[in-house]
Every structure is written in C-alpha cells, then in structure tokens.
Amino acid sequence: MADANDRAVWQVGGGPTQRSYVNQLIEFGVALIxxxxxxEWNAAFSDDDFGGSGVRRFATEPGLGDIVLLRSGQSIIHxxxxxASQYLYLPQFDDVNDWDLQHARRVRxxxxxxxxxxxxxxxxxxxxxxxxxxxxxxHNFTQSPPTDWQTEALPSLPDPEPELSSSPxxxxxxxxxxxxxxxSYWDRERFGEHPCEDEMIVHYAVPLLRALxxxxxxxxxxxxxxxxxxxxxLPRAPANIEFxxxxxxxxxxxxxxxxxxxxxxxxxxxxxDLVVTDGLRYRLYDGPSGFQPVAYANLMCxxxxxxxxxxxxxxx
Length: 316
Prior knowledge:
By secondary structure, the chain is an alpha+beta fold. Helices cover about 20% and strands about 25% of the residues. The protein has 2 domains: about 150 residues, ph1033 like fold (Roll); about 140 residues, tt1808, chain A (Alpha-Beta Complex).
C-alpha cells in the first residue's frame, strides 16, 4: 500500500446528474465502470472490446490504498474513497439505473457533507487526476480527522439476482429480438444513429403489450400526446385508463420519463399505474401508492423479479 503522501489520485464517474448511481456506489462500497456486458476483463482483450482504455486502466493501474474521487456530471465530487481491492467482475451490477457496470473495485467511501464542484475533474468514466489543486485536496482530506472510515469493514455486496429460467412463451419472440439487436444499437459504425423513441415503441413496447393480451383497440398510441395509453375497456376515456406508458430514447434512462408520465396522469385526473421504458427496459410505478416503483424487467437480461412486471401488465 502506498505511503499517504505518495498515493495516486483517481476519479470514477457516478453517472450523469440526471441519471446518477452515486448512492449505490457508496451504499455497497464499490467503484464500478462500464461496459460490463462485454465480459470480464483480461489481458487477452484489446481496448476496442471495451470502448477504449478505461476498463484496462481501471483493472490494472490503481493500487491498494490509492485515493479515488466519486464524480457525477462533469466535475461534481460526492465522496472521497480509498481503493480496497484488486479488480473484480461482479455480475450483480449488470443493471444499475440501466447501466451495465460489472467492472468493479471495492472502495471505502466517505461521503462529503455536500457535493463540491472542483471545475477541474476529469469527465471520463475513470482516469488519473493530474490537477495539482485536486490532488492536494484529496491528500489533505485523507490525512485529516476523522480517519476511522479508512479502516472500517466494507459493506456487504448484494447477492446476484437469479435469472428467469424461461421467459413466458407469449413474449419469447420479443425477448429474442432484444437479444439479437440490443448490442447492435450501440455500434454506430455498423448500425448508425441510435433508434428513436418511436422506433422502440413500434418494435418493442406495442408488441409486448399485444403479447400480454391487450388487443389493438385498447392500446392508444400518441393519445392526447401520451406515448401509449392502455385502456381496460372502451370507450377510450380517462375513466377507463389501466396504465400509461411513457418512453425515453435508448440510453437516456427510463427513470427520466416518470415526471412526464405523472404530469399526464395529473392532467387527466386519474390515479393509474405508470410504466416507463426505452423499449428494452420497463419499470412500473404503482399509482395508488403514490407512484412507488414496484416492478422492473430488462428484456436483454430477464431476472426472476421480472415476472411481477409481466403479471402487473398482463390483461386480466
């Protein structure tokens, strides 16, 4: 372990401000980076397999006891930590706020009393800091009391959630489509621009609803500006709404659609379930409980808990 005055200082991203996973990193004592779906890093891989050098550097360069700053957005620092493990590959972090973050290091974090904008941090997902003022701050912080956090036991990691042994037969074709195409969507050279919201609604969201038993007359697309409105019965009127589906562009994070969906429900004066999606991921919020998140499914990697979402969205 490096001497306190010789510790390298690194930074790791905690997601953009509007789609942060800072709290999860602190809660479980980890630093995580993507793309984890590409598999566990080893020296046989090239940097191209992981979208650049970030994963290789994360896996090989930091030493035990090095300092790491937890950042969101461009330069907002939320916590200071000490690296407490070698590189790990943790499958339980395959879907954190829609990010595949399986590349891991254990970290003892100390959350700052308030986020601080250095204005000079490195916006990359992971990298070494070379700005003298930031390095000085990090060293002074770790050498100033309290210091007991630097030796505390690491928090327990979450258990990996079991995968769904077999998807419902009715949605098997959609799940297979997601498996075939999801990786291609991110390959700009081969695929081009990411598909827009409307495309994902057409290819995934509406077919999923049809597979869950909803007939076309009960599925309204762009009804009163709502992406998808599902009615339990005709006529298509607010009193008959079963749930509202609001979509986001692939990569924007489904949670970002919640406020817009709530606005539609409020304007219509209805208390119904809300579903937010990017076509591949679906999160359901329970209307009667004040829109608490109660079910989730990722078509690219179905877990046992996804059965609850399909059950809630199934036409009774």
